[in-house]
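The instructor's notes for this session suggest beginning with a concrete chain rather than abstract definitions. Hand out the sequence below and ask the class to guess, before any prediction is shown, which regions might be ordered.
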Amino acid sequence: MKLAIVGGGASSFYVASRLLRLSKDRPMSIHVFDRLWAPHGLVRYGVAPDHPEVKNCTRKFDQVAKDPRFRFFGNVNVYRDTPCKAFAQNVQLPLSSLYDNYSHLLFASGCPLPVLHPALPPSTNCIPALNIVHWYTQHPSNAPPPPLDSVEHVTIIGNGNVALDVARMLLTPPDVLRGYDVPEDVLAVLERSTVKHVSIVARRGPFEAAFTTKELRELMKLPTASMVPIPDELLVPGEDKEVSRPHARSIGLLQKGSMNVYGTTSKTWSLDFYRMPLNLSNGPTGMVLTLGHTAPTTSTRVARTGETSTVQTDLVIPSLGFQGDPSSPYYDEGLRHIKTVAGRVALPPDSAIAGRVYASGWAAMGAKGVLAATMMDSYGVADTILSDLSDGLESLNGSGSGSLDVNAPPAEIVDAGTNVLSYEDWKKVDAEEVRKGKELGKERERISWEEIRALLGRA
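After discussion, reveal the predicted structure:
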């Protein structure tokens, strides 16, 4: 088998690790292509800097990359119809080339776009949470910093873990963050921040909250912030309400309140349940966010009550999840990601199975679940790929057995030369970032594309 994987995040490495481990005696090569120059996807560019333990999986990924049957090609944008550089430095690789050069194809490209709210179009005062995350992880998209030096009140729409990550980053003292993987220019912006309050708005109630207990507990323990108490009646389940164990733990934390008593800290935060955004407009003294009130209709659903209220706010951050890229191959408009059946890509509109084409992780599941869920899904897809294997090495475009060089990358990759980064290149960058971080007393200090070129002698 000669497998091409589009996307170099956690899912691709989990699939590769299982395939390589279960196929020690089978001729195989796995080539991973990512438009980012660095591997590991959301592990590098999505995990909150103060959660370094989540990044321990990269040790396993490093072991996968040591297998000679595995190769990583970073800074490569795979496109379907028209070349479009996701980043200025990208090398372009048409999807047709993968069909010509590989016997199997896996999409592990995730859900790279934010879900937007129709009432909250992006602007200087309304910035998707993904942009904030890209800013504080120094993503190659070069997201500009939010205007925190002119903001006192922030409203986050949505209450998933990303929403709480963003709230925590805005409320944590920079000195606490300094030892983590937070770029110096990000710390400089946070030091100038004038944020005093973060409101986290949720359409449903506390018993349906999307955040995990761990994330909530971290907010509760912030050293210089406190939570606005939640009305007691919201923390009592309805008569027929079944409360899961995780939600019961979260409710217990909400009842107890934050470590610091409300009113004793310079910064505050709130969880504002049963509210949904209707409009964001300019008022005489700043931004005015109009919220519609909701109420439960069933155990999991809510509906508008007809009541509204307004909030004076300076910055709105929608955090409503992520979706696939509509321009990517096999995108399903209804699902907003790739449709699969047991890991095999199902073609719209009739769900016919695309032979030897697969998807894993968020690319197949949608943006849900923690890293462990991605790992289990990826292992299952790897097993599906192995069950589909047959003798011979026929390319996806139908070329006969024996026509493929099992080790050779596409000609476009060979011709691109030093613009493509290998895993060995990444490890040099990784070592340099750790070295620079050690000098500053922190986990690492990330470097730019220009610095990478100079480090690798390619400037």
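Then share the key points. The CA atoms of residues 83 and 92 lie 7 Å apart. The chain has a mean pLDDT of 95.
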